[in-house]
Amino acid sequence: MQTKFAIGCLVQWYEIEILSEYISSLSKAIDNYDSDKVLVDIRLVTNQELEQVDEPDRLTTIINNFNSEIDKARNFRISV
To answer: How many domains does the chain have?
Structure first.
């Protein structure tokens, strides 16, 4: 039996600025392991009960930034 790892990350909408750093460090860690055996699940949480988006269009920008970072993660050989 082969060992596989699953990594989950919930990104609150107001944490979008640190997502690229997280993906970069995650990529470096996975490079030291067989990336075919690592599954990464990253989800964006847009709930605004704790903190409200300050501008109406900002949430759209955040979602676009999230999708862009996820696309970059695929280039790092991260299965997201």
So the answer is: 1
**Helical H runs in the chain?**
19-31, 58-75
| Short-list 57, 56, 54, 47, CA closest to 13 | 47
- According to DSSP, residue 19 is labeled H
Query: 65 is in which domain, residue-wise?
Result: 5-75
Instruction: Please state the separation of Cα 39 from the chain's center in Å.
Output: 12
Q: Would the pTM of this model clear 0.90, i.e. be above it?
A: no
Give pLDDT < 70 ranges for the chain.
1, 3, 34-36, 76-80
Flag whether 50 is in a domain.
Answer: yes
**Residue 26 has which token pair?**
């995650």
Q: Determine, yes or no, domain membership for 80.
A: no
Beta bridge partners, 24, equal none
The answer to the question of residue 39 being in a domain is yes
In a domain, 35, yes or no: yes
Name the nearest CA neighbour of 78 among 45, 33, 44: 33
